[in-house]
Amino acid sequence: MMTKDELIDKLKGIIAPYVQDEAAFKALTEDTDFVKDLKINSANLVDIILDIEDEFDIILENDDMEQMLTVKSAMAIVTGKLKD
Amino acid sequence: MKKRVVITGLGIVAPNGIGLENFSNAIQNGISGITHHPALKALNFSCQIGGIPEVSEALKAQYFSKLQLRGFNSSGILYGCMAGVDAWKDAGFQTAADSPLDYDTGLIFGAGASSVDKFREAIYKVDEKQVRRLGSTVVLQTMASGISAYLGGMLGLGNQVTTNSAACATGVEGLLMGVDRIQLGKAKRMLVGSCSNHGPYIWAGFDAMRVMTYKHNDSPEQGARPMSATASGFVPGAGAGAMVLEDLDSALSRNATIYAEVLGGAVNSGGQRDGGTLTAPNSEAVVRCIQTAIAEAGVTAQDIDVINGHLTATAKDSTEIRNWATALDRKGTDFPYINATKGLIGHCLAASGAIECVSSILQLKHQFIAPNVNCEDLHPEIEALIAKSKIPMTKINRNFEVLAKASFGFGDVNSCVLFKRYKA
User: What is the CATH architecture assignment of A4-83?
Assistant: First the structure.
């Protein structure tokens, strides 16, 4: 089982290419919002979802996608899928 | 009094040269950009040669961010953005991502098709029931206006931003639409141009129509033969050309370099009547288009010093020369000098008009007449109409004032523009 820090590191690697605010990215916490804080183009959220699927070998549903707006929600959804 | 419109910036991505210096050198010295492409041979194409600009990954990275290049598979948008950004810089403007929004400048950047390669990727995924795996990049690269969407954002242009499409007449049509908008007072500047993809999926239909040459797979540089007795079809090409059009007062007020003045032009259609079809021109309409362009430009047929023809290297070249001779009522040694850029780069389809306008403007600005290639064996019907000396095979340095450029396209559509040397 992955630790919380390991999971955050993996997510950071995935979202890095899409980030438009590097300062906010450096200061990333669980509460960081992908669009509001990292200024990620909302169209790129679907690309992040696909990259997460590839990285963790999971499939995310449309409902999961709608909720995945912050680091915290992404962690929760990925952790849930990995348990299934 | 109509507003005068001048050209203050140029950008070019052509099979025989990327950037003004390389392209200018290539058209002066008859350097070909046509090569053999094993990928076309492997797919059983009849025509296995083509003109493809060589863009390295390092060069791409100068125009696109890493994020923009993720999932990017669109050579037409690539060439168009490169040419457009270069033209904008050449005109003396900023290209920083946070440059101020410019409501006085618009963008009309044409394309024949958006990215067929990206569409192919998407179609495979859809048929594998993987719609959800397409990602966010398909729509932007496959919508017709993909090029204007990408480029408008790179430059922060706030006037009209759109894409026009009129087959091989696209580039000249877009330029004239930009001129109209400036003359109507709706914009101070218009970045205009056109681009075309390369590759088997965009060229296949032409190969199937047998309009591309299959006789020069072993001699690619001799393949594109406008005006030649042995012309056997066009060679496909790709790339982009771009021009910054500007209200003369605006150009003068900022001391911009002025390449040439756009005197005027015309577009029309032969309506697929009186000999015109989806693929063949109605000659009466072509003549009318040229004559209307001359009238719009406020000059006479005698004032035209040089013509840059459409001249694709098909059986229609003789028809085109006859139409010019009729429209101008000039024959033999009285005919203007004429050249065909396609001998060096092939037929860049939707991009051809803009690329060849850039070629024309460089000739006018630097006062030379570019050489023709591959028509040592001039077509007898052409030689019967105009003097051989008017079809130079080596570069001619001479002063001249007015150049006419025409492009004709499938759908029986015509376009013609007249450029004039600008003297302060």
Answer: Orthogonal Bundle (1.10)
Q: Using the beta-carbon criterion (under 8 Å), do A46 and B70 form an inter-chain contact? A: no
Phi, psi for residue B400 in degrees, rounded to 5: -150, 165
Joined tokens for residue B328:
């101008």
Closest Cα to residue B289, out of B410, B171, B173? B173
Do B210 and B323 fall into the same domain? no
As for the ipTM of the complex, it is 0.89
Same domain, B34 and B146: yes
What whole-number distance in Å separates Cα of residue B137 and Cα of residue B54? 24
Asked if residue B126 lies in contact with residue B118, where contact means CB atoms within 8 angstroms, the answer is: no
Q: Could you report the per-residue pLDDT of B40-97, keeping only the tens digit for each?
A: 999 999 999 999 999 999 999 999 999 999 999 999 999 999 999 999 999 999 888 8
pLDDT digits 0-9 by tens, B192-240: 999 999 999 999 999 999 999 999 999 999 999 999 999 999 999 999 9
Domain check: are B307 and B416 in the same one? yes
Nearest Cβ partner for A17 among B67, B133, B136: B67
B133 and B209 share one domain: yes
Query: pTM here?
Result: 0.97
Q: What are the residues facing B408 on neighbouring strands?
A: B414
- Cα separation, A84 vs A64, in Å, equals 14
Residues of B with CB under 8 A from a CB of A: 66-67, 70-71, 133, 135-137
Which helix (H) or strand (E) is B171 found in, with range? helix B170-183
Select from B260, B282, B307 the last residue of a domain.
B260
Number of domains in chain B: 2
